[in-house]
Amino acid sequence: MKTNLLLIAVLFCSFTVFAQKEPEKMTPGMTEIWDPEVKVIQPGENIGDAPSDAIVLFDGTNIDNEWTNSEGGKPGWIVADGCVTVVKGTGVIKTKRAFENFQLHIEWRTPSEVVGKSQGRGNSGVFLQEIYEVQVLDNYNNRTYRNGQAGSIYKQYAPLVNACKKPGEWQSYDIIYTAPVFANDGTYAYPPRVTVLHNGVLVQNNVSLRGPTEYIGIPEYSVKPHGAGSIVLQDHGNPVSYKNIWVREL
Ligand code: MG
User: What's this model's pTM, rounded to 2 decimal places?
Assistant: First the structure.
């Protein structure tokens, strides 16, 4: 009986050894993915130019095509010399289109004549989905609270560095935005995330927002479910100008 069991065990082991398949030898081609081919687009001729798949939101001419005031009427800001400038007291301008995930390019200029200090100097802002502000401010030799200066996610994240140019010079933001996903209870399942390059310099590295960017209050307290939203530019009473605005939906 013992001999029989031993024989069976030996036969089983031999069978297992022979049954084991030699792993297939990997070749370079096994990890190459060819299809579908990556979509071909035409990049802009110069850095900052809109690529072929971008939606041009403002090319320096007609602001009425893509923008309204807060009530859906004609924007109150002035278009001249290829840019659009805040007119104090006319309120925000906002895109007619609503967006979720996107890459945004926008150029801005604070007044060359320096007036005011801290938050009162060249203040405006780019609001993502209408409620999350990337601060626009003249912080060239102008101290303010660090989480409220140019390139900050207002009162949530200070910029990694101060990359401001002088007042009167054109500056750029390249913003990559991932919209939030909401849980059934109205909180964030996945919070909004933002990356910002200021004049080509990384100042926000995929930060997770805590909630809307509030002037007064705790962001977490004002989280409410929302869908796609406009890009909104702020009238903070200072004549800040914008040009070359384009967006790529992601
Ligand atoms: Mg602002």
Answer: 0.90
Q: Where are the domains of the chain?
A: 32-249
CA of 5 to the centre of ligand 1 (A): 83
Distance 190 CA to ligand 1 centre (A): 25
Q: How confident is the model at residue 13 (pLDDT cuts 50, 70, 90)?
A: very low
Query: Tens of pLDDT along 142-194?
Result: 999 999 999 999 999 999 999 999 999 999 999 999 999 999 999 999 999 99
The contacts of residue 108 (CB under 8 Å, 6+ apart) are 124, 136, 170, 171, 172, 173, 240, 241, 242
Give the distance (Å) from ligand 1 centre to CA of residue 13.
75
Q: Which CATH class is domain 32-249?
A: mainly beta
Structure tokens at 166: 């002088």
